[in-house]
Amino acid sequence: MNAAAARPETKEQMVVAVLGARIVAGAYGGAGAKMPSKRELAADLGVAIATLDRGYAKLREVGLIETLSGSGTFVRATQMPPQPPTVEQLAADLHELSRRVAALEAGTTARTEP
Q1: Using one digit for the tens of pLDDT, what is the confidence trace for 55-69?
Q2: Could you tell me where the DSSP H helices lie in the chain?
């Protein structure tokens, strides 16, 4: 995969990518550490708080953060969960499996024919 394909396309994706990388790197501390305020993070990333909130929702979905009403947002985990394969990866895997099946079938046919 080239670098352009891995680049976030939207500000929300950028928020998820940057904050996710920072959390995994331990920039905010380990599990249980309090995240900086939304206002501070939004200013740091150059996004609106609404955009940050959408990014937070995705980070909560993958289990990197948790938000406790009235207390703030905290680091929940410091490892990114495994990502599902992309369509391109699945297509490449399917092509490889098809190639292997064809090779096996050709080998079986060659051995059984007189």
Answers
A1: 999 999 989 999 999
A2: 3-6, 11-25, 38-45, 49-61, 87-112
